[in-house]
């Protein structure tokens, strides 16, 4: 006979596990939304800082690169420190540091302080991707449950990219950039406090034990090709986002218009991640990457020729293709990582893609100084086409 007391205890444990999974997913998704929103808020502020401090495109790229470079360079170390100090403390501390960095940026009187603030912001943001995604993966059963939870986590990041730049664009029409940036810093500090209360201290053990069984047998060549594909895709995306505000300005857009344009782009990108993940499962990774990257290169070229209204109307479709590729590439990492190296493979992938995104604004910004924004954007579109042979190489390893 079944023990009624054991059945009650089992039901209570299952209920507690469910609450832990929900809290973990909500905390990770909230952290993703806040961090991604603060990260992409820099794009709205770049034209303002250029006018405020009288800088060229190369320095604009350096400002963007300071944030992205610090974020990319610290991710592997952040995952190691989390083993010593705890994932919860690192995630909360990083979120608080990102908020304090924006408070410092709001008080910056010169480029040195602004560069320091952006580097500190990137340092704080570096903990989010490796720790929040592992929080989701460890709290859900490997397989369909984990994939669905990670999809929701990724979608939340794009919601943050949409709301925070749009909110700041609205604030900039009513207040100074310093006050607007400081308010976003307070948002980061408030988010850190919420995460401290929300992240569960105990995760469901069954989900964590099953995580390793989802990894593939491993392919170093395919993983290197995938990393190169992701780095180029990220470099083109970050380069385009850096130049987009200036392209819109040349077409007559104001600050509020630029905030709206980025929101349209990120809305398309959010749905692109969901749609392209589904498309990749139906038609394969290689065909999906060729479709999205080819469409992205074409639409970037078209954005140069279209008037302001046409460019704004095209941005959701461009965002779908621009961001959708990353969802397909991210989902391919477990198929190429060996059973014991999945976390390391994800860390390498995040570091490589964000590193490519950090270098791109500096390099293409220099090209923009020398030859102009249109030439730099056309070079970005051509550079993006390098992903086509690389993704074919990844597809060969997947088939094998």
> Compute the gyration radius: what is it?
21 Å
How is the biggest beta sheet arranged? none
Overall mean confidence score, pLDDT: 83
Apparent shape? globular
Number of strands: 0
Rounded to the nearest angstrom, the distance between the terminal CA atoms is 51 Å
Helix and strand sequence: HHHHHHHHHHHHHHHH
Structural class based on helices, strands and sheet pairing: mainly alpha
Number of helices: 16
Secondary structure: helix percent: over 70%
Strand content: under 5%
Which stretches of 5+ consecutive residues score pLDDT under 50? 206-216
Transmembrane segments: 55-78, 90-120, 177-199, 225-248, 260-281, 345-364, 370-392
Pfam family, one: MFS_1
Organism: Pseudogulbenkiania ferrooxidans EGD-HP2
Protein name: Membrane protein
How does this structure look, described?
Residues about 205-215 have low confidence and may be disordered. The protein has helices at about 5-55, 55-75, 75-85, 85-105, 110-125, 130-140, 145-170, 175-200, 205-210, 220-250, 255-285, 285-305, 310-335, 340-370, 375-385, 385-400. The longest helix is centred in the first third of the chain and has 50 residues, at about 5-55. By secondary structure, it is mainly α. Helix 1 (about 5-55) packs antiparallel against helix 8 (about 175-200) and helix 3 (about 75-85) crosses helix 4. This is Membrane protein. InterPro entries: MFS, MFS_dom, MFS_trans_sf. It comes from Pseudogulbenkiania ferrooxidans EGD-HP2. Keywords: Membrane, Transmembrane, Transmembrane helix. It holds the Pfam family MFS_1.
């Amino acid at each position: 006979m079944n023990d009624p007391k054991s059945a009650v205890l089992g039901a209570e444990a299952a209920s507690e596990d469910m609450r832990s999974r929900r809290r973990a997913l909500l905390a990770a998704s909230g952290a993703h939304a806040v961090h991604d929103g603060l990260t992409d808020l820099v794009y709205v502020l770049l034209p303002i800082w250029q006018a405020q401090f009288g800088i060229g495109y190369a320095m604009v790229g350096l400002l963007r690169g300071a944030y992205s470079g610090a974020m990319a360079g610290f991710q592997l170390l952040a995952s190691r420190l989390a083993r010593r100090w705890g994932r919860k403390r690192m995630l909360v501390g990083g979120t608080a540091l990102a908020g304090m960095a924006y408070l410092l940026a709001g008080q910056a009187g010169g480029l040195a302080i602004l560069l320091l603030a952006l580097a500190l912001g990137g340092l704080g943001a570096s903990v989010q991707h490796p720790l929040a995604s592992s929080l989701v993966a460890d709290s859900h059963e490997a397989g369909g449950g984990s994939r669905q939870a990670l999809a929701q986590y990724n979608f939340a990041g794009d919601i943050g990219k949409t709301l925070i730049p749009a909110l700041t664009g609205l604030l900039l029409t009513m207040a100074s950039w310093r006050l607007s940036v400081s308010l976003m810093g307070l948002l980061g500090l408030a988010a850190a406090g919420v995460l401290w209360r929300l992240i569960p201290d105990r995760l469901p053990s069954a989900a964590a034990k099953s995580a390793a069984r989802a990894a593939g047998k491993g392919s170093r060549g395919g993983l290197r090709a995938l990393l190169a594909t992701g780095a180029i895709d990220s470099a083109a995306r970050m380069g385009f986002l850096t130049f987009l505000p200036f392209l819109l300005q040349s077409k007559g857009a104001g600050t509020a218009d630029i905030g709206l344009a980025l929101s349209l782009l990120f809305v398309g990108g959010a749905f692109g991640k969901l749609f392209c993940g589904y498309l990749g499962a139906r038609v394969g990774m290689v065909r999906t990457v060729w479709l999205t990257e080819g469409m992205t290169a074409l639409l970037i070229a078209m954005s140069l020729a279209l008037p302001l209204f046409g460019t704004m109307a095209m941005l959701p479709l461009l965002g779908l293709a621009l961001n959708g590729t990353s969802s397909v590439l991210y989902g391919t990492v477990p198929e190429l990582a060996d059973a014991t190296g999945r976390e390391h493979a994800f860390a390498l992938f995040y570091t490589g893609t964000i590193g490519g995104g950090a270098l791109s604004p500096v390099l293409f910004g220099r090209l923009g100084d020398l030859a102009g924004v249109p030439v730099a954007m056309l070079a970005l579109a051509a550079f993006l086409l390098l992903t086509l042979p690389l993704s074919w190489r990844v597809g060969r390893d997947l088939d094998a």
